[in-house]
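Next up, sample data:
>
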Amino acid sequence: MDTNAAAENLQVIRTLMERSALYRRALAPVMTFAGATGLVAAALGWLLKIGQPRAFTLYWLAVSVVALAGVFLISRQQALKDKEPFWSPPARRVTQAILPPLFLGLMAALMLGLPSGNSPVPAWWLPPGWMALYGCALHAAGFFTARGMRWLGWAFILAGSACFFALGQLSIAPSPFQAHALMGGAFGGLHLAAGLYLYATERNGKTA
């Protein structure tokens, strides 16, 4: 291994160990924001009757952009508050770890969610795939952040797998509008539960 690369890896590991409590505190508002965004988006999608595959996919892709932008701003604000560089070597490591499954989720949306026609199947098969891939991303990030991220990743993976199995047993796909409830329960509910847990354990002085 190159000497400079080895030194950088050791520095990243040391930084992550020294600042694990700081990174854990930053996760609480990030998770809470992501959960609230997911729940509000699911409610709006239901009320606005966004049910066509193309509209459903584009809507939730837009929601993901809003969520990512909010996470970016919260993380940047936290970094400025603690006088930390935002695009630090640990941040680059986490980004590199989560990028492949997130990219695959985007490709799945483009392939399955944007065909012509009015079949509700794409709208229903996308959420479980997104959940599983997002869970893989969280699990990968968990090796660089709080270990609770890996447990949250497994929760998304298992939820997505259970949905895949359930859909495979149905002869008729449920209403596409109910897919919004599934997205809200997963990306809204799980994130919000994680955020509340982090806030509660932080006050009690526990570690995740």
Remarks:
- The chain is about 80% helix and 0% strand.
- Residues 53-81 form the longest helix (29 residues).
